[in-house]
Amino acid sequence: MQLAHFLGSLVLLGTGGLLLLAAGVVVYGLTAGRKQLALLAAGAGGALAGLYGVALLAWPFFAPTRVLPAGTEISFCGLDCHLHVSVRGAAPLPTAQGTDDGEYLVRIYLRSNAVRAPEYPSLLRFRLVDADGVERAPFPRADGMDEPLIAGQSREVELRFPFARTPIRPRLRVTWATWPDYLILGPASTLVRRKTLLALPAEASS
Prior knowledge:
The protein is of the alpha+beta class and 206 residues long. The protein is built from three helices and nine strands, in the order ααββββββββαβ.
């Protein structure tokens, strides 16, 4: 995943640089009275942006949905892939008598194998997904999710998700919550990583 993230980021930066170059040529062409040059640069920039956009949307469309086995660790990359997430446990919580409103508890294990820099699990987005594809966001962050992980540290955090009834075959979806990774082309894109789900430990034998 680190190589995919690096290459995707490189393509994004390269495409952005070419678009800036095309914009500069357009400005030069207009100010220098070279309208044909400006039109050519605008057309090339538009075509490049269009191709990138099509590839960005097409890649997740063709990417298969994967459900990783219970306990599998997934990694998230900045400059390096040092933030790791897995699920340690999951169970429905008892509902109040006479009500259908309930909660589903998922215990998240966060691990950093960085040497110096801290990692920030608060930048991750967690969603519980049932068999019908319905997503549920967790209640406000539990203690430990908003605190940085110092280099080499690990931590277990409990997330509680609202459900009117116990979800059928729940899975956990974890992605970056921040926007830059939505623009990365390839398997490291958040749009692609949305299609990778973590099975919960209770399903290990199913």
